[in-house]
Structure formats: structure tokens, C-alpha cells
Amino acid sequence: MPSPKSSASLEQGGAPLASPAQSLADVTASDSTLRRFLHGLPGVDAVGLEARAASLGTRSIKTTAKAYAIDLAISMVDLTTLEGADTPGKVRALGAKAVHPDPTDRTAPTTAAVCVYPDMVAAAKEAVAGSGVKVASVATAFPAGRAALGVKLADVRDAVAAGADEIDMVIDRGAFLAGDYLKVYDEITAVKDACGTSARLKVIFETGELSTYDNIRRASWLGMMAGADFIKTSTGKVAVNATPANTLLMLEAVRDFRAQTGVQVGVKPAGGIRTTKDAIKFLVLVNETAGQDWLDNHWFRFGASSLLNDLLMQRQKLATGRYSGPDYVTVD
Questions:
Q1: CA angle (310, 244, 296) in 5-degree steps
Q2: pLDDT above 80 for 327
Q3: Which residues are catalytic?
Q4: How confident is the model at residue 331, as a pLDDT?
Q5: Chain-centre distance of CA 328, in angstroms?
Q6: Closest C-alpha among 116, 184, 199 to residue 145
Q7: Do residues 244 and 57 make contact, with C-beta atoms less than 8 angstroms apart?
Q8: 197-247 pLDDT, tens per residue?
Q9: Are 116 and 81 in contact (CB under 8 A)?
């Protein structure tokens, strides 16, 4: 159970509400009740948060555990290409890599997903057919999110119609920072509806633009209350993306949310995670904060592209005792 200092309680006026479902309905009934709840969450001790993240990052693991951690991390990668120069051929090649990350070693696990723009979903879907690799698509006018709601929903529906298994949406950071929390909540619920029953929803906060840890905690609870299946740090398109501290804070949020509601939500740090050492640090954060229930690619992902290559090189070194260098893997 979360400690009283870090947990958040779904209460109004200091009195517990009848049930988690009723709590959520009451909290989101109006802008004022939602604001009161979000600003009533415990303040974040920034020094303590960063110190704990740094401390957990110093943990070392044995060779056998490292081999397990590398394979687990590979299985959690959302192999991503989100460039204006993306082509169907590039996406098909990325899909082939997701299915067989190391063509010389078929024991290497598949990645969790391939993440592409909506117009590339069909090509990605064809490339990973029959493999179990999911196709994720960014939507809602990614990465800035500056579009009318109707345009954003059309973006989502197009991706789902093309076969996307997962939708990665961006929140309206301008509305959030202006304190218009109900607008952000309503937009997330509308996108969730547009996903239907076939696609899971990842909600991206762009933590580098939210400025404070308190805002990240508020965004985490707002996203989860609106129906997010995952909460995600960032787009990878700004200067500050996933960090151990902001990911630790989000892991605390999903842990506390499940304790309050019984609903489990995933976490996806994205951007800036490039090495095996980095990935293992994040896996330690997951294990020590949210627990083993989240050590599965259904509940934890890495939004990355270059990370996979380093994981494969380190995997090969453990298996053979030799470090093959960057030419061992494909350049995406």
C-alpha cells in the first residue's frame, strides 16, 4: 500500500465517497470539483523525489539477472519512427526488425510494438502480421496537439480504421497550464471513445512542458481518471523528455490509483533512453515503486528507437563474451 505521504485519496470535503466509481463521477462533475481534487493532491517533494530516483539508479544486478533484464527491456520497446521522411519501405523494414530484432539469433524476443504516424499504420500492420507485435499510432495532431477536437478525433478514427492496436495521444498542454482541466479531461474521454474497444489509449503529457512535478502528478491523475490505459512522459520532440524522476512520480501515481480504484494503468517513458544501462535503471524504478505487476510489456513500455540497438549489442556480448560494435545491428 502507498504511504500516506505519497498517496492520493478520492475525497471531497474531507469525507470518503461511497465507491471509487462514484468518487470519479463526483470529482469530474464540474471544473471546480476537478480543480479542487487535483490541487488537493499531496505536493511533490522535489528534492526527495530526485534523491530517491538517483539512489535507485545506482542499484547493480548480477549477470544472470542482467540477461533477463535485457530481454525484458527488448520486449517492452515501442520501436518508433515519427519523421516527415518516413516511407512505407522504411516502416516495413522497422516492422521486420520489431519481429526479428536480431536476425542472427531467433531467440531474441520481439519488441512490444511499432509506433508510426496514422498514414503509416497499414504498412506497419502488414509488416508485423501474425507476430504478436502491436501497431501503435500517434494521433490528435501530434506532437503539438494544436487542432480542433473534431480534427483530433478524425485522426484517431483513421488510425483505428487502418488497424492500430494502440493510440498515443497528446494532451492540450495550453489548456492544462491555463487550469482548464475539464477541457483536457473531456478531450481524453472523447479520444478514448474514438478508440472503441479495439485500441488501447496512451496519454502523453509532454512533461518537459509542464514545468513542475506537481503538474506532472496532476496530469497523471487527470489522465487516469479520464480512462487512459497508459500514461506517457513525452513525445520525444522537446528538450526534456523521460527522466528517472518524472517516471518515478508517474509510477507512484499508477500505484496509488490502483490502490484507490482497483484499476491498473501502464506507464511509458519516452525520449532520451538510449542505453542498456538507462533501461535497467528504469526497470529498477518499476520494480521498487509500482511492483512486479508492472514488469510486463502490457503495463510498461519504452518509447525509443536507438535503445533497441544497444540492448541487442549488450545481449550479444553476454552470450558470446565479445562486443561486436555498432555494425552488428541495423541503422534505422
A1: 65
A2: no
A3: 168, 232, 268
A4: 56
A5: 28
A6: 184
A7: yes
A8: 999 999 999 999 999 999 999 999 999 999 999 999 999 898 889 999 999
A9: yes
Cell of 288: 521498487
**Residues 83 and 307: beta-carbon distance below 8 Å:** no
Q: What is the dihedral of CA 86, 91, 94, 100, to 10 degrees?
A: 180
Assigned C-alpha cell, 30: 464540474
Q: Among residues 157, 190, 158, 188, which one has the least CA distance to residue 171? A: 188
| C-alpha grid cell, residue 198 | 479495439
CA distance 210 to 175: 11
Question: Can you tell me the distance from the alpha carbon of 311 to that of 309, in angstroms, rounded to the nearest whole number?
Answer: 5
List, in order, residues 6 or more apart from 184 with CB less than 8 Å away: 171, 172, 175, 176, 222, 226
Three-state secondary structure along the chain?
A: CCCCCCCCCCEECCEECCCHHHHHHHHCCCHHHHHHHHHCCCCCCHHHHHHHHHHHCCCCCCHHHHHHHHHHHHHCEEEECCCCCCCHHHHHHHHHHHHCCCCCCCCCCCCCEEEECHHHHHHHHHHCCCCCCEEEEEECCCCCCCCCHHHHHHHHHHHHHCCCCEEEEECCHHHHHCCCHHHHHHHHHHHHHHHCCCCEEEEECCHHHHCCHHHHHHHHHHHHHCCCCEEECCCCCCCCCCCHHHHHHHHHHHHHHHHHHCCCCEEECECCCCCHHHHHHHHHHHHHHCCHHHCCCCCECEEECHHHHHHHHHHHHHHHCCCCCHHHCCCC
pLDDT of residue 24: 77
Amino acid identity for residue 81 in this structure:
T
Cell reading at 194: 474514438
**pLDDT at residue 3, as a whole number:** 39
Is 88 within 8 Å of 73 (Cβ atoms)?
Answer: no
